Amino acid sequence: MCKYVKIIILLLSLIKSTETFRLFSSDAGTYKEPRPFFTSSKQLIDDYFDGNLAPVSRTINSHTFVFVMYYANFCGISRRMRDPYEKAAAFYRERTSDGNVTLDKFHVKFIAVDCFHYNGQCRKTYKLNYFPHMFLYVKGTRGYQYFGPAIASNIIEFIEKIRMPVMRLTHVNDFLDFIVQYESTVLASFDFSNDLQRQQSSLYVQAALKHIEYDNEHPVRFAIILNQSITDELSRLYVNNTFQTPFVVLHQLHTEPQMFPNMTNNFTMENLYQWIINEESEAHVGWLIPRNRYYSHSPSIDKATVTDALTDYDNLLLFFTSNRLDEIKLRQIYFYLSSCNVTHSSRWLEQLERLYNDSFADLPENLNKTQLHRLSSCCHYALSQISTDDLYNICLLNYPLSLLNFSNKHANVCLPILKIKSVEKLCVELYCQQWLRNSSLTYEKSSNTNRDAVLDKRRDKFYEQILKIQPKKILEGNSSTEKYRNFLCGINSTWAIRLINSRHYPNFAQNIGIMNTSRAIIVLQPKLSVKRNQRFVRLTKRYKAYQQAHNEQHYILNDTHITTENIYKLIYEISHNVRSRSYTSIPNDEAVINHSNKLIELTTDTFHPIVFDSTKHVLVVYYTKWCGFCQSIWPVVYQTKKFFENFSDLIFTRIQADKHDLPWHLTAYHYPTIILFPAKKKNHSIVFPTSTESITSVSLIKYLLYHLYIPDTPNDHWCQPSNNSFLSMLSSTYVDFSQISYLVKSFS
Predict the structure, then answer these.
(1) Which of 76, 211, 652, 737 has the fewest CB atoms within 10 Å distance of its CB?
(2) In what order do the strands lie in the sheet with 247-252?
(3) Could you tell me if 114 and 50 are in contact, meaning their C-beta atoms sit under 8 angstroms apart?
(4) Residue 237, CB half-sphere, CA atoms under 13 Å: how many?
(5) pTM higher than 0.70
(6) Any signal peptide, and if so, which residues (predicted)?
(7) CA–CA separation, 364 vs 425, rounded Å?
(8) H runs (alpha helix) in 128-249
(9) pLDDT for 102-131, tens place per residue?
(10) Which CATH number fits domain 303-340+492-576: 1.10.600.10, 3.40.50.1000, 3.40.30.10, 3.90.1210.10?
């Protein structure tokens, strides 16, 4: 009876499935019925899964900012974008109560359209060759395409840049912070009482928007000067230039500012955009992102991405971090090492140091229990005042906590504390990050009481950790660093610094030996083939230097050792070739030198002394445990080893290549790989030709005999009896390789 019940349940489930995915027919074929792509109950996205464009056009015309995702239901990249797209939509939704009714206000409207549905208007109108296409439409202008990764914070950052493409500078300190915070900046000044200059300012904003859209790899920030004192300060800094309104200037820390030529007759949006692209130098310090322009298609940082970054430099310092403020510190470090020809370098260094320190919530280490309790209480009280109505203003628009309506009892105690910038950052910044990560909790359909309970629960959890999870600061060292200042100016070696977000791209760090850390430094040096436009003579010299140093790839500085002084020391020692490179390796108890039935297991540390022993021929098998074919060749290798067991000058070894790093010229990238290192010719290693030969006992023995024991032309001396029993057996006849299989069987 139970058996029949199970069959009936199965049939019912199939019927239900058929109802969910009904098919419809047409002259062109049979297709699935359209179904929603965003199925969450949060109702954050207007999903037009039938491909209808009419409501999309109406929404774009009626809202200031509308983000539209043109997707295909079957597309894996579209599905990967679905969750971060919903999180970004939640970030811009503000919920307000009107009596017993909860109203939603969207500061940015989010829409999704299935543009692959067979009979949909979207597919008939647009011929899209990939998915998803994502556009932020601004009322009165056009749509700006998002090319970024499927990460909610990146989507939000893109939206905020489009919403505010140009910074408004009203104070000198804001101006100084702005030009050091970004390596390349564009500054402009216009007289808004002049009709022509108002039109030029509009073109300036359009150029900024186009740069944000198309040049994410080399971000340049734009600003408008609104105070004459800033123009005066700019004139004092660069006395050789005259800054008379209107002007547009490209400011880069390592070069003199460049003025846009002929503001009267040559000022168009396209000319300004092209001028910035042509004149802008590549940043020495910046964030590394996936190499594909359509970053959502390439969600991880791979070897090709790093190779591109290495193309024009001798050394690449990769800094793995989840703290965006580290970019400011690394810019200061690079500037300290290479600012010998820069005007006002000391002032820029001081400004970078101040900006970095002010951005951190530095709490005194000697707080007593009473002070610590008071600080914690004020943070907790301030956060308890945050309602869902305040979240948008506080977390996105930096609305000060001190402006909240506190009761008189708490105002006298907490307001003086919360006015301290570092304390306010500590109270708010991490809470906002947590709010964004857990935004789904806030927007579940629930009563006001349940909503407040959820917020209180999260506040309590945050309160317990608030003083323990402050962003880590790069500390200074104890010794003087004066000897490192500007030393990069006097050496023939180029450096670039790239930051990688360790939270979004953890795999690359793990692949080269960095585990369980949020911050680390790796210095990479390129292979010879990476460098472009170099003469062969120079390559030959560098090749010899690399051979002597036995290094190529990376030097690692772990989290516990990252200080300003150690970073200076690392760059200095690598530039002068006195730093030993880092290798990834795991302990291996089987790495002993004996000639038993087992192969010798090599590690990073034992590879060179064993393989480069000039008295031994060494056969190395590169393998990995996840390689299925590698497991099938071991009987062949063991049989070959037994065949040569009386050859005391031949050693059989193997190395687990994905667990033990080697210099680039000794590294294999396909598994299994078999390489022979002859005794007297270690620099002339011989790779087993797997492309033309199968890995069998016969082919391996043929390969070893041919390259080690049988000369090209047999002579009388070779035919004489020797101490080697096998050569004695073959003393009068040249080996016929076609008959070697019989020899193999006799030794098996």
Answers:
(1) 76
(2) 166-169, 221-225, 184-189, 247-252, 258-259
(3) yes
(4) 23
(5) no
(6) 1-20
(7) 15
(8) 152-163, 172-181, 195-214, 228-237
(9) 666 677 899 999 999 888 999 999 988 889
(10) 3.40.30.10
